[in-house]
Design goal:
single chain; mainly alpha; 13 helices
Length: 320
């Protein structure tokens, strides 16, 4: 009589997608615990603010997601599903504050465009086009305000002389390393050439459609403008004795100055740069600190948990 062998044990599969759904919530908890003192102080400042202006700041924050969605749609020729695109921008904002600046939102949007059927090369090209347009829009607004109010910002306080030398050396080192890598590594050179060819073709196709070009550049200009308007609203709510246009100028200068610092969502570096910038346009240090903490509560901490929940839901529903 032959012995009956037991059935082979089934290997238990790791629920990767469920783990990914819970990961944003875990990261939110870690970040909140690390910055609990900042959270407590920021909510304390909100209690003494004028609520109509805080509501205006909250409204401007909500509109930034609409502007981001418009810009992302303008970067591709194909029509993207609107509600899912808007939800993705809300979730991308949360991811951007949990990962080094720009990486979270870029990863979420790349995955979303890929799921929508765009090839990886075109998705990357569309992402690069949007980031370029947003940078041009931010720098353009900053330049326009500097021309309109040439004496509003004391740049010496925002860019200390001791920091300019190391920053210049660091930028030159990065550019030199990139140039050497392109010259020495043939595969890298071929990949860059292929990417540039795809990106230029994508940009040409987008700008041949006026509706897409308007969405791209309109969203790219509206995004930093709404962020600056949010800071100006919070400053007015807390009685910062600085004109609103000067506060907007301070915001744009601070975010441009801190763009190269790779901290999660700019947490820490953005606060410091904003405080310095508001002081540079004439604000008292104590009030400027209160304004920045309250502004970050509204724009970062309040949307962080619902954004993480949305991110988990989009992963579970296979939207991203």
């Amino acid at each position: 009589m032959t012995a009956v062998l037991p059935p082979p044990a089934r290997r238990r599969r790791v629920p990767v997608r469920q783990v990914l759904c819970l990961l944003p919530l875990l990261l939110v908890a870690v970040v909140a615990v690390r910055h609990r003192e900042v959270l407590a102080e920021g909510f304390g400042h909100l209690a003494s603010a004028r609520w109509p202006w805080l509501l205006a700041a909250a409204g401007a924050t909500c509109l930034t997601w609409v502007a981001a969605a418009a810009g992302r749609q303008g970067a591709v020729v194909e029509r993207l599903p609107r509600l899912r695109l808007l939800a993705t921008q809300f979730a991308a904002g949360s991811a951007n504050h949990l990962l080094p600046t720009g990486l979270g939102a870029s990863a979420v949007n790349l995955r979303f465009m890929t799921v929508c059927g765009l090839p990886a090369a075109r998705s990357s090209a569309a992402l690069a086009l949007y980031l370029l347009a947003e940078a041009v829009g931010r720098l353009g607004l900053l330049a326009a305000l500097l021309i309109a109010f040439p004496h509003a910002l004391r740049l010496g306080g925002l860019f200390p002389g001791t920091a300019l030398g190391p920053l210049f050396i660091g930028v030159c080192a990065v550019l030199l390393a990139a140039a050497v890598a392109l010259v020495c590594v043939r595969r890298l050179r071929a990949a860059v050439r292929s990417f540039l060819r795809t990106a230029l073709g994508e940009a040409r196709s987008v700008h041949m459609r006026p509706s897409r070009a308007l969405a791209l550049w309109g969203g790219s200009l509206a995004f930093p403008a709404l962020q600056a308007a949010g800071l100006a609203s919070v400053g007015t709510a807390l009685g910062l004795p600085v004109p609103a246009w000067h506060m907007a100028l301070a915001y744009l200068a601070a975010t441009v100055a801190v763009a190269l610092i790779p901290t999660p969502g700019g947490i820490g570096s953005v606060e410091a740069a904003l405080i310095v910038a508001l002081v540079a346009v004439g604000g008292p240090v104590a009030v400027a600190t209160a304004v920045v903490l309250a502004f970050r509560i509204i724009t970062v901490w309040v949307p962080l948990l619902p954004g993480a929940l949305t991110l988990g839901a989009l992963v579970r529903l296979k939207v991203i």
